[in-house]
């Protein structure tokens, strides 16, 4: 077909042949973008009568593909909704728990950091080593709590993102497949519209 198109580039048939091969005679549209130029050239060159004849031949089967994909998307979307609803209580529980832990650990970090700073200011004013020891203990505790609080905040952010994603459609594996099915149906519908369009 490509050889024929090189020799008879003004004819739509070789270009259309390339598209037929790439789409398995308009039954599989996953690779249609690989022959986009041939597709455009074929449509531009064919007459209104040729396009009508091709529409009569191919549109019914493409309409069936659209219907099948939309039905598949509806089933997968329902599954996506059910899966999200089932997992939501656990995500809400994890979110609340992580928020509580992050708040407590952050508050403890601030408390020990402030205490260490205040005690450090009185080291030279108070005789003995008690203030120094307490200041060191508070400083070390604050440093440890800094890392623990950072970890807790990371868990909180992850839990918040997961809960937010749970509220959106097509975020589960089933939902992503539903979105793919819808996109495929829209792609085939666009080809149908091209076949039905007037020159």
List keywords for this structure.
199 residues, mainly alpha, 6 helices, 81% helix, elongated
Structure description:
The protein has 6 helices and no strands. The mean pLDDT is 91. The chain is an all-alpha fold and 199 residues long. Helix 4 packs antiparallel against helix 5. Helix content is 81%, strand content 0%. It is elongated and about 105 Å long.
How do you describe this structure in short?
With 199 residues, the chain is mainly alpha-helical. The chain is built from six helices and no strands.
In whole angstroms, how far apart are the ends?
23 Å
The biggest sheet amounts to: none
Give, in order, the helices and strands: HHHHHH
Beta-strand percentage range:
under 5%
Helix content: over 70%
As residue ranges, the low-confidence spans are none
Count of separate DSSP helical elements? 6
Helices, strands, pairings?
Layout (H helix, E strand, L loop, with lengths): L1 H6 L4 H11 L13 H10 L2 H74 L8 H37 L6 H24 L3
Helix pairs in contact: 2-3, 4-5, 4-6
